[in-house]
Design goal:
Shape: flat
Oligomer: single chain
Strand content: 15-25%
Distance between the termini: 194 Å
Order of helices and strands: HHEHEEEEEHEEEE
Largest sheet: 3 strands, mixed
Length: 233
């Protein structure tokens, strides 16, 4: 019996092939384990290490780069305003029409020159220089100057103021009396308005005076007790 037990023990312990199989299995397991670790490390490396860094989400893919236009290239999104090539319209200034001018009266008889001014609706003023003669030496404004109607033109006359007879205007309309006095070279001086009939004048009619003398006239009713006044030349 004892031999039988030993034989069974020898038969169990002597099984060299079974021990070798366990060692081979251990080596295979190590090889497989090492290969699996390599595969896992490769997978981790492929993911960029985000799992090892402790991040929960996958990395965001890089944004698409913006398109950059070359320097100096026109931007299609911006419209360039069109430039007007038309030149501004120029309106021509109409020529100023020829106006009233001082007539050519230099060298003419002063009475004739005065009448010409009256026809052009211009005023006049006679200045007698006291020499000899009765012609116009110059005017102010000068001959040819553009003037407005009613403008007074001064006539400078060579020679003294000639004598003239004062017209009798008593009983005439005030306006008509004034015209008669002007025609004869006198200036009317109104003493009581400019309407109505001339009731009085000073100096009296038919007396001798000189050009540029003033003659006072009373139009309408003359004030009571009014005396004669000597006109101021």
């Amino acid at each position: 019996m004892i031999e039988a037990v030993d034989g069974m023990t020898d038969g169990y312990t002597g099984g060299g092939a079974g021990a070798g199989d366990d060692a081979g299995s251990d080596r295979l397991t190590k090889l497989l384990g090492g290969g699996l670790a390599v595969v896992l490390l490769a997978a981790v490396g492929a993911t960029g290490g985000w799992a090892l860094a402790g991040e929960d989400d996958a990395p965001t893919p890089p944004a698409t780069a913006a398109t950059t236009l070359p320097t100096g290239a026109p931007d299609a999104s911006r419209s360039t305003p069109a430039r007007s090539t038309s030149s501004p319209t120029r309106t021509s200034t109409p020529a100023r029409p020829a106006g009233l001018t001082v007539p050519e009266v230099v060298g003419k008889d002063f009475a004739e020159a005065r009448d010409e001014l009256r026809e052009r609706r211009l005023g006049w003023r006679l200045v007698f220089l006291g020499g000899a003669g009765k012609t116009v030496e110059r005017t102010s404004p000068a001959v040819g100057t553009e003037v407005r109607p009613g403008r007074t033109v001064t006539l400078y006359v060579s020679g003294p103021a000639p004598a003239a007879t004062v017209p009798d205007v008593v009983g005439d309309d005030c306006d008509e009396a004034a015209d008669d006095l002007v025609d004869e070279g006198f200036y009317p001086r109104y003493r009581s308005g400019r309407t109505g009939t001339v009731t009085r004048q000073d100096p009296a009619g038919d007396v001798t005076g000189r050009w540029n003398d003033q003659v006072s006239i009373w139009c309408g009713e003359a004030p009571a007790g009014s005396g004669s006044e000597t006109p101021t030349p």
